[in-house]
């Protein structure tokens, strides 16, 4: 249940439009709802400013759909977008049959329910930088997450260190950002280069892209953790969602949390 729904319910009780017992019934499922295979966290929005996000990986299409439907039911007072990440094409097709109002963002491997007109809630712009086209889905996961949290997002694609002139051509755009998310696989050098160029917080995302000795992204992760450039924070391998969420918190306005919907 979102903050606006709780406030509306309490106001209705105060005005005598809702009985106390009715309000208690509405609040019974406030902490969570037991679906048998999942405990859907209805309290997440009150604590964090944004509803629970569904990790589609490892879940069946039927489970993803059931959780999305339950989260949407709990958000009926305020149409807050609900996000499911790591949903492949086959699962997405099945989920959309059960939740026809959902939208599949194929490049981000994500599903969104309840998308609405964008509302800018951040201090500035988040720039998401991708080293190569093979990193695109992680870039898009980060960008979509930050956008749904109410941030202006710009993307800079395919500017890895193998052709550093491509990055240098976008330096003015990087300088104008409030926070920069940098996504890279292989040796993971790009975040260090970006952090060395600009005075901005850099959130580094290692990806599993690379040949054998990249060890599924471990080489990039270690390279980023050992960055010699100041101001680099590192999330886990392929964790575009975590980077986008963290960037939204960094970009939050001084008068409130940018995720407070």
Features:
261 residues; Rossmann fold; 5-stranded parallel beta sheet; 4-stranded mixed beta sheet; 11 strands; 17% strand; globular
Largest sheet: 5 strands, parallel
The ordered string of helix (H) and strand (E) elements is HHEEHEHEHEEEHEHHEHEHEH
Percent in strands? 15-25%
Distance between the termini: 12 Å
Strand order of the largest sheet: 8-7-9-10-11
Helix content: 25-40%
Number of β-strand runs: 11
Oligomeric state of the chains in view: single chain
Task: Detail the poorly predicted runs.
Answer: none
Task: Give average pLDDT, whole number.
Answer: 86
The CATH topology of the largest domain is what? Rossmann fold
Number of domains: 2
Number of helices, counting only DSSP H or I runs of 4 residues or more: 11
Give the overall shape, derived from the CA principal axes. globular
CATH architecture of the largest domain: 3-Layer(aba) Sandwich
